[in-house]
């Protein structure tokens, strides 16, 4: 269990603490205006200069000795900020975690604040120009999206009941999209995304630049060796390269250091040999999110 | 010293320029409709965004968009974006 859960989980996981989804938090920090301003200009955030810096060419900046390390530190401090948000043009307190299907269902069933909507993924839109409805939003965020035409799906019905939202999320997860839950901004949870690399603006900093923008899940994948037939379908499904076909063993091997615990590989396993175990079961990996 | 260090890094930098007279900003081709470079690029180097400081009639539904090469460090210089651009607006320097 990580630091976040200890402090904000009320004895469980932080994202299963319903108080983080409450409208009262949004009122307290005046998030209605903040989020509208932020999402009105969402695509601009990484090119807009704040304090003389923007994210253009971040990879090069991080490579510069000393300066790179300072920039990384500043970026992480901003993402992990726990102070009341002030500037909607910065991703303040915008930190997330990978969630497997079961936990996402639990979130949608018990925690998520009404109204629940599904909007066009802004990451896929800004990096590929593709409009794909797969982000599930809750509470205040849903009201904001209603005002922004480019995020509203054209074909599908986008105001969802809890059951419909669960069904939609399940569909995305089966497709191989990684479930992620986001503070946006801390301490308000309003986004349950179905992400894909390299489009996702939340996964990219971590995967490409080593900036801690997202935590690995509370789980890790494990393989029931006796049930595995060695077809290897799961290997191509893993977006993090944690599964590898071992020819001499005739079965895939799991690199648990790379595993993010998203659990999407399970959906292609014909024998159900892959299963998730809590991260704590591997003492060496217990705290490494 | 700092100049030396930064200079050393910059020698290996890929520069990607987009000519905004031909693409984006509500003047040239609308990148929201074209978007060929966005989809041709495997590492997703480009970013589609509203033009900064453009005068919008409805700020909730902006109409002036442009493309910026946001992550040039991930560029492999494969040249697919240059080949695919119908306006010839993209230039990549090693």
Report on the biggest sheet of chain B: 2 strands, antiparallel
Oligomer: heterodimer
Q: Give the helix/strand class of chain B.
A: alpha+beta
What would you report as the Rg of chain B, rounded to the nearest angstrom? 15 Å
Question: How many strands in all of chain A?
Answer: 11
Q: What fraction of the residues of chain A are assigned to beta strands by DSSP?
A: 15-25%
CATH third-tier fold name of chain B: Alpha-Beta Plaits
Helix proportion range of chain A? 25-40%
Strand arrangement in the largest pleated sheet of chain A? 4-2-3-6-5-1-7
CATH class of chain B: Alpha Beta
Tally of separate domains of chain B: 1
How many helices of chain A in DSSP terms? 11
Summarize the structure.
The complex is a heterodimer of chains A (289) and B (94). Chain A has 289 residues and is of the alpha+beta class. In chain A, 32% of the residues lie in helices and 17% in strands.
What are the defining features of this structure?
heterodimer, A: 289 residues, alpha+beta, Alpha-Beta Plaits, 2 domains, globular, B: 94 residues, two-stranded antiparallel sheet, elongated
Give a written overview of the molecule.
The complex is a heterodimer of chains A (289) and B (94). Chain A has 289 residues and is of the alpha+beta class. Chain A has two domains: 3-47 and 58-215, no CATH class; 219-285, Alpha-Beta Plaits (2-Layer Sandwich), CATH 3.30.70. In chain A, 32% of the residues lie in helices and 17% in strands. Chain A has helices at residues 3-8, 23-28, 31-40, 58-63, 67-79, 101-111, 122-128, 139-145, 162-175, 203-209, 233-237; strands at residues 96-98, 116-120, 133-137, 159-160, 178-183, 189-195, 214-215, 219-223, 243-246, 251-254, 274-278. In chain A, strand 5 and strand 6 form a beta hairpin. In chain A, helix 3 (31-40) packs across helix 8 and helix 6 (101-111) packs antiparallel against helix 9 (162-175). The radius of gyration of chain A is 19 Å and the shape is globular. Chain B has 94 residues and is of the alpha+beta class. Chain B has a single domain, classed as 2-Layer Sandwich (Alpha-Beta Plaits), CATH 3.30.70. In chain B, 20% of the residues lie in helices and 19% in strands. Chain B has helices at 2-10, 36-40, 80-84, and strands at 15-18, 46-50, 65-69, 90-93. A two-stranded antiparallel ribbon of chain B has the order 1-4. In chain B, strands 2-3 form a two-stranded antiparallel ribbon. The longest helix of chain B is centred in the N-terminal third of the chain and has 9 residues, at 2-10. Classes of the chains: A alpha+beta (289), B alpha+beta (94). At the A-B interface, helix 4 and helix 7 of A face helix 1 and strand 2 of B.
